[in-house]
Amino acid sequence: MKTIFISVLCVLFSGILLNCHVVNSNTSQNTDLHSPVHREWMLITFGAYSKSDLIAKNAKINLTEKQEKGKIKGTAFMGCNSMFFTSEFKNDGGVKISEIGSTLKACQDMKLETDFSKAFRNMTNYSVKGHVLTLSDDDGNQMEFIAADWD
């Protein structure tokens, strides 16, 4: 009876140790989720659109997904369709936006969404200063975002 009890206890203890090891190995594979771009960002400056127009459309990008192999799968919303993309923010201030797609709803006013999609794919540089993310292209066009969690 004593040997059965010890055997069961050993099996349970081994299971606990294995579970602890699995948890530790998974957390060690996580990338830095505290980088300055890992946030939801509200669009506040873009082309001829006013800040109040952008706020009314709830224009934003979301970069909160886990970074994998240097890339972040992001989403965007400009008032109608949900957009998705892959982004790669480099240490030298370069950014690559690729694999852009969206849902296909037809809305009355899709101008912001169309303009944003065309400009967004051409962004090549980024900077984060305080709570502001600025994306720019090689022609000097910019879009500015403010962190959604900043009051």
Automatic annotation (TrEMBL):
The keyword Phosphoprotein is assigned to this record: no
Pfam families referenced in this protein's UniProt entry, alphabetically: META
Signal peptide: 1-25
Keywords in alphabetical order: Signal
Domain DUF306: 39-143
InterPro entries per record: DUF306_Meta_HslJ, HslJ-like_sf, Hsp_HslJ-like
UniProt-recorded name of the protein: META domain-containing protein
Organism name: Chryseobacterium nepalense
